[in-house]
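task queued by scheduler; priority normal; single chain, no ligands, no partner chains; default sampling; output format set to structure tokens
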Amino acid sequence: MARRKRRKPVKKPDPYPIDHNGITPYLNRFLEWSAAMALSPRTVDIRQRMLKRFIHWCDERDLNKPQDITRPILERYRRYLYHYRKADGEPISFATQQQRLVPIKAFFKWLTKENYILYNPASEMELPRVHRRLPKHILTDEEVGRIINQTMLHGDIGIRDRAIIETLYSTGIRRAELINLKLYDVDTRNGTLMVREGKGKKDRMVPLGQRACIWIDKYTDEVRPGLVVEPDEGWLFLHEYGEAFHKNRLTDLVKKYIEAAGIGKPGACHIFRHTMATLMLDNGADIRHIQAMLGHSQLSTTEIYTQVSIRKLKEIHALTHPADRPRPCQRDGQAEIEDNAETQLFTALAAEETEESAEPEDEETMV
């Protein structure tokens, strides 16, 4: 595969110019404080994007100081978000509305604490309720096979894409976690994958099935060398210009294969997370092991979860993951408390998908 030169990142014009607004210096201090409090870069970035939108809205209404923002002003902004329509005429989701309001509450709480304003106008601002629902769409193992078969029509890039989908399906890791994988995070000899600073800035090691290992090795041996642009930064999965994927590019890639398979189920990266958890539970995996693999710190249940070793996780993965298990494994009857735990697990998965879909798009383009 011919190498291409690394493209230079080009920033799109700022859709929310706010440098002239008097609230902006306070925003910059708030973001510095957020970073100093060891919040994740993702959280700081979301705060910046959402607050820039809000300050731009304020600027259009000649609101130029934190002291200009009152409780009725914030209520107007909340109603503005509720009535806002996207280019396709659809409203923004309650999850997106909530994501845009939460940083505002944090900002004004900080302004009050630092004595920049006398009272907090956002203290009683109500957030939209985001209904927690169970995942609507789960793939069967046969449907996963149909999706994977689509990658075989695309040559070397198809090998990379199959390795990506096999990794998502085998491990159930999140989209951002896959994007952030480095070469040294994957141990195909021992069948493990290290997720570094996953959600909540926590590391975890998860099993990597034999089939996924085979395709990752094939990709790293045969395809990745032709994609690398020096200096090699060590990202495991590279797009055609030798760089790590942006989240929306990865979503579009996975969605393309799902649509090409003609399954008729919407979704992208996260549907493999739902599917892995569902099929492994159906095949007899314990809820504790699924929780450990997915990186859920806790579930709202009275059951006490214990530490689970990677060795035990690998045994359970080999027995219950449909891509690798050697024989059918019937699931025993579960106690009511475990059934509740399963419901909460899948509700948490659906909430993650809602949160992921509410994330702002990448603002950086490439030329």
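post-processing summary
- The chain has two domains: 9-113, 141-366.
- The domain at 9-113 is CATH 1.10.150.130 (DNA polymerase; domain 1).
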